[in-house]
Amino acid sequence: MQTVTKKEVEMKVSELVEKFGLKVFSGEEGLENEISGGYVSDLLSDVMGNAEEGQVWITLQTHQNVMAIASLKELAAVILVKGFEPEEDTIEHSNEEGIPVLGTDKATFEMAGNLYITLT
């Protein structure tokens, strides 16, 4: 399996939000987190086993377990696609951990492509 790694130019979550007009649902404290790459999966065990610290996770999962995995793996942010919104306990956990939960109306494929082009 291959993951996306960043260019030499550093990018922060706040820059990604601005570039793609992402909605910030929670975790504003982490908007200055540095991004090291991206990971796309809706299978929590896959993300737990393969995502790397500092990556942005693109998913349509909205429940609190998303934040448990994001925190465990020390991810930079989570992007919810297709207009999905996080559950209330996900928002609370995001704020506690300082890991932003972001949103977009874009499909997973489009958001992943945009992230890939931006980071490589």
Fold topology:
Blueprint (H helix, E strand, L loop, with lengths): L3 E2 L7 H8 L2 E4 L10 E4 L3 H7 L4 E5 L5 H8 L4 E4 L7 H10 L3 E3 L4 H12 L1
Parallel strand pairs: 3-4, 4-5, 5-6
Antiparallel strand pairs: 1-3, 2-6
Helix pairs in contact: 3-4
**Element pattern in H and E:** EHEEHEHEHEH
Shape assignment:
globular
As a whole number of angstroms, the C-alpha radius of gyration is: 12 Å
Strand order of the largest sheet: 1-3-4-5-6-2
List low-confidence stretches.
Answer: none
Distance N to C terminus = 17 Å
Q: Which percent bin holds the helix content? A: 25-40%
Could you describe the largest sheet, including whether it forms a barrel?
6 strands, mixed
Count of β-strands: 6
What is the mean pLDDT? 93
Strand content: 15-25%
Structural class: alpha/beta
Structural features:
120 residues, alpha/beta, 6-stranded mixed sheet, 6 strands, 18% strand
How does this model look, in words?
The protein has helices at residues 13-20, 44-50, 65-72, 88-97, 108-119, and strands at residues 4-5, 23-26, 37-40, 55-59, 77-80, 101-103. Strands 1-3-4-5-6-2 form a six-stranded mixed beta sheet, sandwiched between helices. It is α/β, with parallel strands linked by helices and 120 residues long. It is built from five helices and six strands, in the order E-H-E-E-H-E-H-E-H-E-H. The protein is globular.
Task: Describe what is shown at a glance.
The chain is of the alpha/beta class. It has helices spanning 13-20, 44-50, 65-72, 88-97, 108-119, and strands at 4-5, 23-26, 37-40, 55-59, 77-80, 101-103.
